[in-house]
């Protein structure tokens, strides 16, 4: 297999790729847009709760404890001011807090009045009711019979909150990789549709060389674009090697799938149709990046789960080789298998 | 003349259909062979087997002393193929297309412009192929098949549907390549083109070669030589008379005609390859 021939084809494919208006546009705009989206997203997690309060002050120590926990009380002078704060979006929950000591002394029922914005979620209303029952308990010193059970879905990342934009980085990288899957499938389909593959294969170029050239071009483009995004958003981190290895495996994986799409598609439209089917299925594990624990363990049968999860661990939790080696191995196996299957499928098509 | 192509008992089937049925022929070095037949006769399948695009189910094809099924890439390095359907990189220019294939063939110091000049595309070499006319694309296809100065050139319907200028340019290239010493395997529907360009012609019909020889020999074997005579009648109008040559009473008929009629014009006419093909196969080459 001649490296000169392969390099010649790679150069040709890169030229053709960027002369295809659709893929040139998608590639450039995609990279720029993903980077722009990253910088538009908030760079910190806002865990502050703003609560309006009208009534005698909470005991100073208790108030301080709550404020350390991220609750900020906006003191108001009247119920009218309290309601106005909700209307003007200063806070979503207003509390009329009675003088508990006086109420208890007079043997009167204690009523803590909570005022919510009309679009405040019902579940959250219940949470606030519980919270103020707790506060009342703290102030009154009387036990309340509240039982709470906690169920954590997926890995417990309590205390490791990630800003949305950091959570999006693996998502963006994987989407760029999957776009490249359509690119390579389109190039292969184009060669078959235009008959240029026949012209290539009556030269000294072997069909294996053709596959290798396509694979090199596709892996290179996918990997390059993904790295551009990572570098642009500062996502490479202090341990770049495992991240690079993961993206490389991902690029091989999408190239293999691109070969499979190219083997079944007959033209650009069918590339898009088949490509979308693959993209939708492969995107399923990505939802766990935004909503951890949403999906069950069945998503582990999809190869992109290992890509998404590994990138998430590396990008957002400072994981190292030892943390992701299992995932990475499975991803590598998936990638090699998909590339092999893709090549076999293409070879059958050409024969 | 040593042989450039030796074909023995070649067979190819598409399922139940035998597209090429036990054909054998030789093509000498420097020879132009016209391969003629109607659509579906097996011409393209034969070319695909000879150029290593398909493996024959039976038989063998030896090109330049090498078995195409065993030394495919060595053979392909020394042949050029111009396909029937246009298959160029439309988003690339003519120059880029030629340079790409020159690199694939490992041609050093390749001059794309000189080759484009030969096919009359020098002015448009930097334009993207998608802006070329059909004739220009076909000429570029022929130019592409020449980048490696092939010893055998396969031209599959190179002039079909082309304007006279493009067709003439391609015929000129065939003549030049023959002078260079290349062997040319030419498939065409155009009988006049085959008659003019080919040293020998092979008629293929329903997968079998039904005749193979020099055009003149085929015409002698299968055709009738005639003389067409125009005479002036008493009414002052012209009439046509036809006299078949090579018959016993031909001289007497000619003598009688010139003695009794006022002869205006005399033309000799020989059978065309089309006539011969019809006579042999009972079908036309086109349509």
Brief synopsis:
With 351 residues, chain A is mostly helical.
Characterization of the model:
The complex is a heterodimer of chains A (about 350) and B (about 290). Chain A has about 350 residues and is mainly α. Chain A is built from 14 helices and 4 strands. Chain A has helices spanning about 5-20, 20-40, 60-70, 80-85, 100-105, 120-140, 165-195, 195-200, 205-230, 240-265, 270-285, 285-290, 305-315, 320-350; strands at about 50-55, 70-75, 95, 115. Chain A has a 4-stranded mixed sheet with strand order 2-1-3-4, sandwiched between helices. In chain A, helix 3 links the parallel strand 1 (about 50-55) and strand 2 (about 70-75). In chain A, helix 2 (about 20-40) runs antiparallel to helix 7. The longest helix of chain A is centred in the middle third of the chain and has 31 residues, at about 165-195. Chain A is elongated and about 100 Å long. With about 290 residues, chain B is of the alpha/beta class. Chain B has helices spanning about 45-50, 70-75, 95-105, 110-120, 135-145, 165-180, 190-195, 215-220, 250-260, 275-280; strands at about 5-15, 15-30, 30-35, 60-65, 65, 80, 150-155, 185-190, 200-205, 210-215, 225-230, 240-245, 260-270. In chain B, the strands form 3 sheets. In chain B, strands 6-7-8-3-9-10 form a 6-stranded mixed sheet, with helices on both faces. In chain B, a hairpin with a 2-residue loop joins strand 9 and strand 10. In chain B, helix 5 packs parallel to helix 6 (about 165-180) and helix 8 (about 215-220) crosses helix 10 (about 275-280). Chain B is globular and about 70 Å long. The interface of A and B includes residues 12, 15, 20 and 195 of A.
């Amino acid at each position: 297999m001649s490296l000169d021939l392969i390099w010649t084809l790679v150069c040709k494919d890169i030229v053709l790729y960027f002369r295809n208006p659709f893929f040139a546009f998608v590639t450039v705009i995609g990279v720029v847009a993903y980077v722009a989206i990253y910088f538009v997203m908030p760079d910190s997690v806002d865990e502050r709760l703003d609560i309006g309060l009208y009534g005698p002050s909470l005991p100073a120590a208790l108030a301080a404890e709550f404020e350390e926990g991220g609750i900020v009380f906006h003191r108001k002078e009247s119920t009218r001011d309290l309601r106005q704060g909700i209307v003007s979006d200063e806070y979503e929950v207003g509390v009329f807090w009675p003088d508990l000591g006086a109420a208890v002394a007079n043997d009167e029922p204690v009523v803590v009045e909570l005022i919510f914005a009309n679009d405040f979620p019902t579940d959250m209303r219940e949470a606030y009711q519980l919270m103020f029952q707790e506060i009342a308990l703290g102030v009154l010193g009387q036990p309340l019979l509240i039982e709470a059970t906690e169920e954590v879905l997926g890995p417990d990342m309590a205390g490791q909150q990630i800003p949305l934009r950091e959570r999006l980085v693996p998502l963006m990288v994987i989407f760029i990789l999957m776009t490249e899957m359509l690119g390579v499938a389109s190039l292969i389909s184009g060669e078959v549709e235009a008959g240029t593959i026949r012209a290539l294969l009556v030269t000294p170029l072997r069909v294996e060389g053709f596959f290798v050239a396509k694979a090199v071009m596709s892996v290179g483009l996918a990997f390059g674009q993904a790295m551009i995004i990572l570098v642009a958003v500062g996502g490479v981190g202090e341990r770049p090697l495992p991240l690079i290895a993961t993206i490389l495996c991902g690029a091989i994986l999408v190239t293999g799938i691109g070969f499979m799409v190219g083997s079944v598609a007959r033209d650009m439209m069918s590339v898009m149709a088949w490509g979308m089917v693959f993209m939708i299925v492969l995107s399923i594990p990505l939802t766990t990046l935004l909503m951890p624990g949403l999906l069950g363990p069945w998503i582990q049968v999809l190869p992109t789960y290992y890509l998404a999860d590994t990138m998430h661990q590396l990008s957002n939790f400072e994981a190292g080789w030892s943390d992701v080696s299992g995932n990475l191995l499975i991803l590598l196996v998936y990638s090699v298998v998909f590339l092999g299957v893709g090549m076999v499928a293409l070879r059958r098509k050409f024969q | 003349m040593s042989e450039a192509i030796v074909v023995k008992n070649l067979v190819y089937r598409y399922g139940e259909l035998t597209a090429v049925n036990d054909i054998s022929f030789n093509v000498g070095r420097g020879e132009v062979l016209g391969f003629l037949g109607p659509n579906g006769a097996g011409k393209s399948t034969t070319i695909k087997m000879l150029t290593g695009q398909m493996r024959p189910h039976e038989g063998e094809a030896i090109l330049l002393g090498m078995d195409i099924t065993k030394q495919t890439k060595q053979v392909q390095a020394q042949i050029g193929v111009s396909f029937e359907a246009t298959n160029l990189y439309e988003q690339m220019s003519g120059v880029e297309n030629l340079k790409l294939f020159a690199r694939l063939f490992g041609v050093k110091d390749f001059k794309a412009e000189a080759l484009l000049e030969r096919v009359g595309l020098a002015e448009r070499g930097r334009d993207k192929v998608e802006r070329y006319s059909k004739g220009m694309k076909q000429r570029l296809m022929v130019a592409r098949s020449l980048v490696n100065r092939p010893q055998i050139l396969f031209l599959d319907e190179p002039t079909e549907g082309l304007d006279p200028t493009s067709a003439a340019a391609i015929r000129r290239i065939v003549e030049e390549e023959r002078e260079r010493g290349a062997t040319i395997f030419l498939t065409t529907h155009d009988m006049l083109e085959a008659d003019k360009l080919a040293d020998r012609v092979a008629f293929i019909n329903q997968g079998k070669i039904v005749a193979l020889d020099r055009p003149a020999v085929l015409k002698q074997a299968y055709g009738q030589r005639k003389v067409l005579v125009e005479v002036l009648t008493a009414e002052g109008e012209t009439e046509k008379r036809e006299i078949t040559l090579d018959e016993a009473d031909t001289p007497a008929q000619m003598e009688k005609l010139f003695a009794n009629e006022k002869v205006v014009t005399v033309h000799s006419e020989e059978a065309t390859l089309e006539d011969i093909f019809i006579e042999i196969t009972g079908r036309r080459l086109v349509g």
